[in-house]
Amino acid sequence: MSSDRRFGPSRTVTLSGPLRLDGGATLAPVEIAYETYGTLAADASNAVLVCHALTGDQHVASEHPRTGKPGWWTRMVGPGKPVDTSRHFVICANVLGSCMGSSGPASADPATGRPYAMRFPVITIRDMVRAQGMLLDHLGVARLAAVVGGSMGGMQALSWAATYPDRVRAAVVIASTARHTAQNIAFHEVGRQAVMADPNWRGGDYYDREPPAAGLAVARMAAHITYLSEAGLTEKFGRKLQARDAKSFGFDADFQVESYLRHQGLSFVDRFDANSYLYITRAMDYFDLAEEHGGRLADAFRGTATRFCVVSFDTDWLYPTAESRGVVHALNAAGAAASFVELSSPFGHDAFLLESPELSRVVDGFLRSVA
Fold first, then answer.
1. Where is the AB hydrolase-1 domain positioned along the sequence (predicted)?
2. pTM of the model
3. 316 given a catalytic annotation
4. Is 220 labelled as part of a ligand binding site?
C-alpha cells in the first residue's frame, strides 16, 4: 500500500515498506519526495534516474521552493539537453536521510509522533538505492534506460549497477569514487564536529528550538573548499581585500574569499538540516563498493550487462582522476562495457555542476548510443 501526494511539480509518496537497512534496522513507512519530467513510454523503457549529490535534492530541473533558484542541473536536464526530457522520462528523488521530503532525521517517528532526530537509523548509499528501487516499483518502472549522477550521485549510480544489475541498462558516473579515502572521511569529520560542537545542536534534539546554524555553516564552508580548485580560487579571488579601508585590519572578512565562504555557509543553513548533514556524510564515508563484494571491486560488476560511462575532471582533488581510473579498471576486469574520459576544467570537483560543453557532449553522445 502507498499514497502519493503532490506539492506543485514535486510529489511525495508514502510506501508502507518495510525497508530493511544495511545496519540491521527496518524503516516503515518510507516517504520519498521526487520529481518527474517528460512522459513515460507505454513499455516504461525510457526512464532515466538522476541521482543528486550530498546537499542536492529532487529539484534537478525546476525552481527550488525555498530558495527560488533554478534547479541544480538545468544545464543538463531538459528538452533538447543531454538528459533529454523530450525523449526520456526523468526521475529525481530526494535521498533517504535528507530533508526535502524523504524520510530522515526531521521526519516524525511513528512511535512517538516527534522528529526522529538522532534516533533515525544509520543509513548507507545502498539503503538510498533500495529506497529508490521502491519508488521505481511504485512508478511501474522495472528497468532504467540509465542512471546518471555526479559526486554522491555517482556513488548511487555505481551502487545501482551493483545492487540491481538487471534493472540498469546504462550508468553515467561523473566526478565520483567507489569508496571514500581517509582524507575524504577526515574532511567530513571536521564538518560533523563543527555541527556537534554548536551548543544549539543539543544532541540532535533541536527541532522545536534554535537550530545549530553556526556549526552547520562552518561545516559547509569546510566542505565547499574541497569542491573547488586552488587555481579556480586564485583566479576568482586571489588575495583581494574587501572594498573597504585596507588598513582596517581585523577578523571581519578582510579577504574576498572569506566573505564568499561565509556567504556559502549562511545560505546553506536556510535550506538544509544539520542532522541530515551528519547522516548523509556518514553514509558517504561508509561507502566501499569493493568491501560490499568480498573486497574486490571487479566482483561488484561481474557478469553485468550494464554499459558504463565514467567521467573525471583534472582539477578535482576531492575525487581525483585516479579514483575514476580504479573504477574503470575494475569494470574492465569484470568484462563490463565501459568508456572513460578525463575532462579539463579549472573548477575542481564542482565542474560537473557548472557550464561544461565537453561534459554535455559526452553525456549526450553516450545516452544516445545506448538508447
1. 46-353
2. 0.94
3. yes
4. yes
* pLDDT tens-place string over residues 132-157: 999 999 999 999 999 999 999 999 99
Distance CA 264, CA 38 (A): 33
The answer to whether residue 98 is catalytic is: no
Q: For residues 220 and 224, give the distance between their C-alpha atoms in angstroms, rounded to a whole number.
A: 6
Residue 288 burial (CB < 10 Å; 0-12/13-18/19+)? middle
Contact 344, 206 (CB under 8 A): no
52 is catalytic: no
The full set of domains in the chain, from first to last, is: 2-181+288-370 (3.40.50.1820), 184-280 (1.10.1740.110)
> Which position among 62, 102, 151, 176 bears the catalytic label?
151
Q: Are strands 307-313 and 170-174 parallel, antiparallel or unpaired?
A: parallel
Element (H, E) at 258: helix 256-269
CB atoms within 10 A of CB 35: 22
Rounded to a whole number of angstroms, the distance between the first and last alpha carbons of the chain is: 33
- Which among 88, 316, 324, 356 is annotated as catalytic? 316
| Amino acid identity at 102 | S
Burial of 274 (0-12, 13-18, 19+ CB in 10 A): buried
| Total residue count of the chain as it appears in this document | 371
Long-range contacts of 331-334 (CB under 8 A, 24+ apart): 331/298, 331/301, 333/298, 334/298, 334/299, 334/300, 334/301, 334/302, 334/303, 334/304
